[in-house]
Amino acid sequence: MARSYFWTMLFLILHQIDAAYWHEWEMFHLPGGVQGYLAFNFAAIAVVLVGYRHVLTNTPGARLFAVICAGLGIVTFVIHAGFAAAGSAQFHLPLSKAIIALCLCCAILLLRAMRRRPVAAK
């Protein structure tokens, strides 16, 4: 599970770096503009990094963090697929598309890895 969590987390963070280029805060009309975007990313990245620590140390909370990480990967893909279907001009470059697709693929692999891994003892 740690390996699939790592890859999902990596592509989520890469997507957020790419999202800064595309001014994602404008797409979502985030309050505070880029400052609101940075505050959101501070919280979101902190959660996935803390979650990775839980997964590596096999704490009882590891599965919850894995579900959150996988959920973020799936939601990232779904939201951006919706924007693309609506004709949005952002995220049209090949690597942008690949990173978004890899968020979904790695999230699915993470969910599959969770099914094979026993729950940590309390």
Counting DSSP E segments of at least 2 residues, the number of strands comes to: 0
Structural class, judged by helices and strands? mainly alpha
Number of domains: 1
Contiguous runs where pLDDT drops below 50 for at least 5 residues: none
What general form does the structure show?
globular
Largest sheet: none
Portion in strands: under 5%
How many helix segments? 5
Arithmetic mean pLDDT? 94
What does this structure look like?
Helix content is 79%, strand content 0%. The chain has 122 residues and is mainly α. The chain has one domain (2-116). The chain is globular and about 45 Å long. The mean pLDDT is 94.
Layout: helices, strands, pairs:
Elements: H1 2-21, H2 24-27, H3 33-57, H4 62-85, H5 94-116
Briefly say what this structure is.
The chain has 122 residues and is an all-alpha fold. Helices cover 79% and strands 0% of the residues. The longest helix is centred in the middle third of the chain and has 25 residues, at 33-57.
Task: Write out key terms for the chains shown.
122 residues; 5 helices; mainly alpha; single chain
